[in-house]
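The following record pairs a protein chain with its ligand, zinc ion.
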Amino acid sequence: MTFDLTLTFDNGPDPDVTPYVLSILADFDIKSTFFVVGEKARRYPELCRMIVDQGHWLGNHTWSHTLPLGLMRDPRQETFEVLETHREISSLLGNRRLFRPMGGGGEIGPHLLSTASLQALRENRYSCVLWNSVPGDWRDHHGWPVQAAADLARNRWTVMVLHDTSLEAMTHLPQFIGDALSLGTRFRQDFPEGCLPIKDGIMAVPVSEICVAH
Ligand SMILES: [Zn+2]
């Protein structure tokens, strides 16, 4: 049995870590998605350009990354989080509009979106990209590959959330990728239906699964 793995990198771009991650992915000829924080994208537009130029997809990961959108309770701010980031990166997106909500530790549930942010995503024909693996690289810089390998063995197709924010954590990326390849893992850039509750602006799951009722 072969396993599929889609790698994603959240919370960047970062001038130290993003180029390093890009160089590793290039070494292995793996394409990925970088879900960027809008205010960082504004600070480092050249890194966003580099991501796209190397064949990766760029995604919207809110403007400020301060709270899950369903917990904000400020509809204007929730909309801003989606739309301001969209304005910042839209020229690099082409027809592919990918949004990853802030999970606040990786939990999936109605805290991910609010009514206002969901409306902004639907009107702009975004797809919402969730995950089934959060190995915790941001809190365990050296231990995350153990959890990542366990997740890989558990899922037929893993969508893994990593972060291009810690050089220390990402020094383990080449070894992890090498080990996964030696197990026959197939790396791919796209996402399984089960991780896409919104596709091109159209709901694929009941709203209440990913959005609070206000
Ligand atoms: Zn994040």
